[in-house]
Amino acid sequence: MADDTLSASFVVYLRMIGVYMSAVSILFLFLVLAFIDLAWGLVLSLLNRQSVIAADGRVPEELASSITAEAAAKSRDYTLSRLGFSLVEGPITTILTLAVAALGLFGLLDAFLGSLVPGAYARAVLFFVAIFLAFSILSLPFSLWSTFGIEKRFGFNTTTLGTWFLDGAKETLISALIGLPLLWILFAFMDATGRFWWLWAAGIFSLLSLALSIIFPLLIAPLFNKFTPLPEGSLRDRIKELADRLGFRMGGIFVMDGSKRSKHSNAYFTGLGAVKRIVLYDTLVSSMSEDEVLAVLAHEIGHEKKHHVLKMTIVSIILSFAGFYILSLLMGWHELYAAFGFTAETKEAILMIFALVSGPATFFLAPLFSAWSRSHEYEADRYAAGAAGKDAMGSALLRLNSENASNLWPHSLYSFWHYSHPTLRERLAAIAVAT
């Protein structure tokens, strides 16, 4: 009863807002929030750029014995190139998207397709296919510039144009095979389950998300990369001993042929339950000592032991329910549709509006999630330092930073807002005092 009263009150509140806010006012508010989001992002990027320029390639004092001047110079140049790229890509894509929204072109597209296709589901599918293709075309030159311009110039890119296009084709096909049926399922629940459709939809989509996390490492990831079990030898024996000592059970440790596309190094944890696995890039295995690889592996095990994956999954499910609930409350707000040029209150219209509005309306939450992620990384680092040794963990972090030419001089506000991992100096300092 309390939930019904709350829902009714919220709907009444939205309708009251609708009385006082015309479609023009809603659009204006959206544009203001979007430009604040864009401007703040540009300010942070410019601060970060100035921090790198001011350092002039000088190795931070506490890292002077571990990082060469040549590595620092590469880090500076690479970071400035990536920042310059983001300062062009971000404003162009954002402003074009806002222009399309402000001119009501999304609504015009929906109305045009409605005149061609009588079925509601077919119209919605065509609408999102058209939007997907438009954004893919918009992002194409930037992706090419990033991969074959910046990444190649700094010696990271190893992929060919053919492989790059093939990857894109695979991603598009997989997105269609998964996304379009999910869209149909969502619309079916909207039509068949009444006012509580959002509850059913959130529950089903949460279960499907968990299923995909199991399927991804087994069926999808191998479509892009080759995963081979870590071969017999000293490293495998030491890893097995470490896993047994830490009481960690998994589906296996695999080496991924990351060098097929890039020289960047990484390691990650994927899957759930019996299919969970540790994936090490081949570039990481070839460039690190066994002690360093063990430290990286212990860090990934630390995420599992500290239940970080479980916590993030629970939060993701909660956010999914909240998102669907808010979506259900917004569906009857006529002025909201009109603000973005939609003449009919279609399902694809409200989904498109929700996708447009959710970013600018919640951008201020970014540092909260970044801080939460960094706390997980600190915990995993401490766990790894205890399991594999402080020296090995510190050495592994230094090598990863050098191999990836990561920024040695990030602005504190930029890292606070954006970084999901602590900076190198922050991580090394935390490891040094870990018990």
Can you walk through the features of this model?
It is a single chain. Helix content is 74%, strand content 4%. The protein has 435 residues and is mainly alpha-helical. It has a four-stranded mixed beta sheet. A hairpin with a 6-residue loop joins strand 3 (267-270) and strand 4 (277-281). Helix 2 (23-55) packs across helix 16 (412-418) and helix 7 packs across helix 11. The chain is globular. The model has no long low-confidence stretch (mean pLDDT 88).
Overall mean confidence score, pLDDT: 88
Low-confidence stretches: none
- Rg estimate, integer Å: 24 Å
Tell me the total number of β-strands: 4
The CA-CA distance between the termini, in Å, is 51 Å
Helix content: over 70%
Strand count, sense and barrel status of the largest sheet are:
4 strands, mixed
Structural class: mainly alpha
Give the neighbour order of strands across the main sheet.
Answer: 1-2-4-3
Residue share in β-strands: under 5%
Shape: globular
SSE series: HHHHHHHEHEEEHHHHHHHHH
Q: List the total number of helices.
A: 17
